[in-house]
Fold each of these.
Amino acid sequence: MNLDWGLIIGAVLTVFVLTYLIGDNFLFRLAVYILIGASAAYATVVVIFDVLLPRVQEAVTLASAPVPNLGLLIITGVGLFLGAMLLFKMSPRLAWLGNLPVGYLVGVGAAMVLGGAIIGTLGPQIVATGAPATSPSGGPADGLLNLIVVIGTIITLLSFGYYRTQRNIALQAVNVVGRRFFVMVALGATFALVFMASATLLFDRLYAIYDAVRKSLPPVP
């Protein structure tokens, strides 16, 4: 009988994770530690063989070329130097030397997130707000949907403004409608999507457990 050990191990680890339903226990922590250890080992291998070694080989190739490209050589050398400085984080006394590359990474990451939020989220949202909405039935419902999208976007943006609303009834109404209606509707829809995705994954893992048990049992004569 050929056993699919990958499927069996995955099913066992799934059962370990599901034991958290009865409370925190050793089996759940064991599955979490295995996940963290495997993820850390995979990330380490990827960084060494797909990032670090190619950069070192690139630096050696650039330095040994008859006419070296000084720009690429400087950029590669600076990257390797900053990466080496991160190793000082392992020493409590020399950890401050690693603050420079960490600050660089945080700055670049924040800039990328901000740029992605503006270009990938805020910009398309502004364009989608101004674009005509469409409904499956068409007709007057299109104009109504477009009006709801525009009003909802404006009210939600105004409800997060930093101003005093204690004496302004209109702004109080904007806060109530924006935060307690439009934001709650958006969060409810997001939660429903997350729940549907989680339920799909749960059913998939339960079927994996059933499939592992079925394949592990000897065939019925």
Amino acid sequence: MKAFILAAGRGERLRPLTDTLPKPLLEAGGKPLIVWHLERLANSCFKDIVINCAHLGEKIVAALGDGRRFGLSIRYSQEPPGALETAGGIARALPLIGDETFLVVNGDIWCDWDFRRAHALVGRHAHLVLVDNPGEHAGGDFCLECRPVRS
């Protein structure tokens, strides 16, 4: 199974920090956010990673390289300026990802979901892992409306 890391966003809410550094390269706990993911993915039996880039993407490529130092193989899906949003970024990267089940992770967050659990989800159409919105942003960026499945 491959993993796809979303790393193309502008990071508007963190300006001016993201004027010179892409959000996934901002440090938390002594290392860039995206590095936390790469290390955990490598420790969870992932080997092939695709990362999309747009805003300051060359800095992500320079910082992570081909992934060897993490025990991974990293390929990059370059997006046009302004990025393509989540679905557009995934669609553009599909030639690098392939037709098999893949894991998608936001490169600008920290999470403690056990990535090894993804291997048991092969063959499923989708499996979402969500967290509650924080108090300071209670409305969130999107919402899910659950409807009963009709048979």
Amino acid sequence: MTPDQLKQNVDTIIVLMMENRSFDHVLGYLRHPSGGNRGDIVGIDDLMKDDYVNKNTDGEGIRPFWRTDAPSSSDLPHSAAAVREQLNYVAAAQVYLMNGFVRAYEDEFHSIVRDPPVLGLLQAKDLPSTAPLANTYTVCDNWFACVPTSTAPNRLMSMCGATPIADTGTLLPDQPTIYDWLSAHGIRWRVYAAGLPFFALMPKIAPLLLTSHFRRFSQLADDVKNEAAEDWPQVIFIEPDYYDCPVHFRPPCDNHAPLAMAPGEAFVAEAYRALTAHAGKWSRSVCVFTYDEHGGFFDHVPPLAIKYRHPNGAVAFDTTGPRIPVIVGGPYAPARGVSHAKLDNTSILQLIAERFGSPGEIYSSEVQGRREQGIESAATVLDVSAANTTVCNLGGGTAAAAPSTVNNSDLRKGFAGAIQSIVHDHQTEAMAKYPELRDYVKG
């Protein structure tokens, strides 16, 4: 779609961003003869392919394998250092072999394994929401994590277009966000969060959590059905309940290992049913189902050669991260389509600027820099004549309890500190909006 077509046909852009899965892990099955047998998608065509072999510490070659969806025993390595090992760049040949996933896993846990979870691949039966969406809308098989590192930098890239940090710490640094851009342009926006929103970790955003810009996910269905068109947001962000947060409003459902996919599949189904319940609103919507980064799971496609340099000098990357599973849905997403365009989550920022900015306006110089290196707008996925009016029936998953193992991660510490700060500074409003915080703070 061109910017003019976007302005004429699209009223609402919706972004549902999950956590930490790779393309091959979730959607690679689509190409395999036992899966979708879709030759148009760059996925897993043969488990015995030598290119997929990862050697363990003993030098034994391990191949990807089909696994049944279930909780993992732990999180998987996906720090900047771990991702470098996973990509396995060979300078002499100037290629990324994409075969260091097992070694990175073994280095993290100091053990040798024969069936490492990093190489486990899911199939359609494990994906009662994602599989029907992939068959109904457009799969993007060349969509990558923005940078080859962990959650926080990739979420900053996704929601700000820049990151001054190279790896995940506790709190997010204050910086301009997409929320600032939308507010400055007079665009109606809203976040529907199933738990505490991720940007509670950014101190300057925390007070906004108590405003009407942030609503509980449980309000989405009613708002879709009953809110007047002039009040309905033009940009919507939908967030799961994060596994790393110590306070949950529902069973965590962000797909972050060690969680199984099932709770996330149930969450996606609930969001999709709510969004499609009002035919008029859905008919003028674009919905991007995306992930922030690959989370340590295997993908066989090398990253894109997109350089990123932050002015602080502390952050420098020469490529994107590995591929992530992204589906673009809505009436302008070609049915059972595939896009091979070079994309990452800053492609969504480009899309938003094209639809809601002035003619020719860019989102930011940083995002424009990525565009000049080949990262395209998500608008390239859309077709004004697609007329994809199908609303698919999602089976959902089981909103099961989280594994008993709890990551003592920096993000968990960050959420804990953010909760204490929000309650300390805005006790009455915070307790009224998020009563679940009361017991945690008292404890």
